[in-house]
């Protein structure tokens, strides 16, 4: 093409570029208009496409956990006590840290799934604060609650940055010879799951290995089981949590509160498909009420089950998050209801009389960057303090449990 032709095209090209620029600006403006989903959502939330550190490297490792717990114990001047309460299948320590001397008991666990890590960060932060602070809030919690935290209770899975532990069915049979010839448990991973290859290192979903009978011994006729049947305490990680829970029952007569800290998918929305992305979801319900026809098979636990208290605890967490007054902390929903999962820690312990709270935080380790990591960890802490403070000052019992059903639903 000659120079004269290029000269004649130059004004036309300029007009075209200007028009494209205006159109692009209009699209961006529409997306960012007040009330639009894009405007409501923080810039670092892209449903798995975030840039930055999206590996497990930015989270507390098992070795770092040991060092941090030891440091917290020393700095607390005796307020925090740390014990090794078990070992994972690969021999890593499972810790329980206790702070407070109140007659109300709260047990909180994190990383039962090893790629769900914000709970561990939140528990370490809370232990530092409650162990060292002389604030009125910290004193009130310590004086009224015995808090037992089990951060990273599935350390093998945490080190592999995956959901399941590191344990073969053959190892289970070696520990429980009566299971020779039984079909492997239904929650045994041997293939590919999400980003993980269990064909090389099989393992179990530990959060399906609990049983409301705290003295249960595995029986071959109970395998392979199903999601709606109790678990078996075949994994050392579930055994460690069960043993801590049972010890607290022996010492105090009850475990008032049990909270399990989890993660869910990164792209759920509040209310409907146009709502903000969910920061975390809460739930009080993991098995049908034993006093109803749907829960009749749990009738032996009916005198202990306290759904109203579980609902009050969930509302206390919700209210604390709403009081933060801004996104992402207000983006809280109710996890799907109607569950029948007696093999979960939450289902088993609810049947044993504990008020139970599920935290399902947005995303796993590969779906968010460092900024969102900090926001989500803070959201977990905020909800947990809402629970602990309301238990410590007694206000939780004044909450109308029916408010639980006013928490917005999750759009999936």
From TrEMBL:
Q: Name one Pfam family in it.
A: Peptidase_M14
Instruction: Pull one GO CC term from this UniProt entry.
Output: extracellular space
Q: Tell me one GO molecular function of this protein.
A: zinc ion binding
Q: Which residues form the Peptidase M14 domain?
A: 58-412
Report TM segments.
none
Q: Which cofactor does it need?
A: Zn(2+)
User: Which stretches does the entry tag as region Disordered?
Assistant: 41-63
Q: Carries keyword Zinc?
A: yes
Composition-biased stretches, type Polar residues, lie in 51-62
N-terminal signal peptide: 1-40
For this UniProt record, the keywords arranged alphabetically read as follows:
Hydrolase, Metalloprotease, Protease, Signal, Zinc
GO terms under biological process: proteolysis
SMART domains on file: Zn_pept
Q: Which family does it belong to?
A: Belongs to the peptidase M14 family.
Q: What name does the UniProt record give this protein?
A: Peptidase M14
Provenance organism: Rubrobacter taiwanensis
Taxonomic classification? Bacteria, Bacillati, Actinomycetota, Rubrobacteria, Rubrobacterales
């Amino acid at each position: 093409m000659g120079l004269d032709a290029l000269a004649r095209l130059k004004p036309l090209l300029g007009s075209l570029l200007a028009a494209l620029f205006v159109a692009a600006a209009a699209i961006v403006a529409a997306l960012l208009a007040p009330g639009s989903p894009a405007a409501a959502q923080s810039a670092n939330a892209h449903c798995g496409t975030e840039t930055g550190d999206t590996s497990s490297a930015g989270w507390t490792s098992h070795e770092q956990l040991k060092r941090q717990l030891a440091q917290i114990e020393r700095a607390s001047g005796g307020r925090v006590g740390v014990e090794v309460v078990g070992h994972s299948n690969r021999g890593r320590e499972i810790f329980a840290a206790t702070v407070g001397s109140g007659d109300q008991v709260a047990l909180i666990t994190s990383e039962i799934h090893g790629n769900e890590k914000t709970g561990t960060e939140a528990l370490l932060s809370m232990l530092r604060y409650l162990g060292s602070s002389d604030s009125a809030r910290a004193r009130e919690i310590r004086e009224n609650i015995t808090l037992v935290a089990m951060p990273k209770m599935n350390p093998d899975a945490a080190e592999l940055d995956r959901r399941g532990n590191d344990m073969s069915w053959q190892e289970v049979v070696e520990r429980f010879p009566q299971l020779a010839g039984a079909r492997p448990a239904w929650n045994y991973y041997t293939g590919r799951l999400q980003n993980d290859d269990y064909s090389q290192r099989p393992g179990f979903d530990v959060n399906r290995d609990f049983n409301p009978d705290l003295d249960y011994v595995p029986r071959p006729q109970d395998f392979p089981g199903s999601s709606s049947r109790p678990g078996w305490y075949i994994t050392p990680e579930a055994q460690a949590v069960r043993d801590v829970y049972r010890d607290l029952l022996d010492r105090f007569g009850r475990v008032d509160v049990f909270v399990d800290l989890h993660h869910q998918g990164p792209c759920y929305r509040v209310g409907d498909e146009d709502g903000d992305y969910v920061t975390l979801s809460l739930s009080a319900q993991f098995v049908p009420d034993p006093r109803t026809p749907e829960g009749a098979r749990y009738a032996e636990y009916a005198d202990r089950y306290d759904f109203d208290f579980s609902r009050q605890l969930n509302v206390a967490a919700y209210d604390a998050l709403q009081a933060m007054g801004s996104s992402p902390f207000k983006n809280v929903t109710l996890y799907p209801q109607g569950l029948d999962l007696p093999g979960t820690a939450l289902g088993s312990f609810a049947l044993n009389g504990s008020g139970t709270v599920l935290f399902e935080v947005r995303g796993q380790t590969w779906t968010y960057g460092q900024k969102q990591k900090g926001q989500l960890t803070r959201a977990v802490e905020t909800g947990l303090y809402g629970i602990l403070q309301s238990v410590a000052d007694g206000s939780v019992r004044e909450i109308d449990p029916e408010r639980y059903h006013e928490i917005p639903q999750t759009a999936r």
